[in-house]
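Mannosyltransferase
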Amino acid sequence: METVLTTVALYYYPFQGSKAQNSSKYLALVALAVVMRPTAVIVWLPLVSYHFWQEDTKLNLVLHHAMPVGLLTLGISTLVDRVFSGKWILVQLNFLKINVLQNVAVLYGSHPWYWYLTQGFPVVLGTHLPFFIHGSMLAPKRYRILLAAVIWTVLVYSHVHCPITMQFLQCPPDLTGNKSYIDEAEIFFSDPVRWLEAHFPNQTVLSTHLVFFEVLEKEISPFLERNSYVKTSEFFHTHVPEGRVGRNIFLYERQT
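Predicted structure tokens:
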């Protein structure tokens, strides 16, 4: 959603020569995007700073546009959270506390700084590049290509999210401050075979398929062989494997 809001906000952003520029409209959309997902501030901080720097009437921009929009948006957000949570709470502050100060997000894995350049950005750009080129060539028909992209996305995700029973390693963050907390993923990787044998003690509860990174194959091979699992597919994942993340993803199917 913050991507949609950012896209619309860019339409009203005061680029030089833009006919649609509107400070209040774009700032309202930016404020809404940041309220919904605080990390959106990373994208907008340099753009808003540049706008402030090149604006002739800086005081007017702050007092009559930025402050009213910011305070109104934050006020509405706080009021909505109060209604649904039953207490006064500043969600954006909690987001900063949990994800930055307590660094809880690291439980779900972390990447080196160059990951965004070597993998993140190329992957995102690669999937959107055909639509970007087509939209650039047919700018007056941008709504048609947008509709086509939306329909395609709905169809693909409707297929991917078909009702299949699956089990994943659980790694919920500890929000209680318990220093001895260990999530299920950590327990699993400390002794994968032992974990598998404990959760699948007999043939009747075995999963039909197992999906894992190739780095785990050698370690759990005794369990795979003993329970008649055979590798049926292999999918490329990354050029830069590290730690528990392998270059490829293996799909094993149990032969009965």
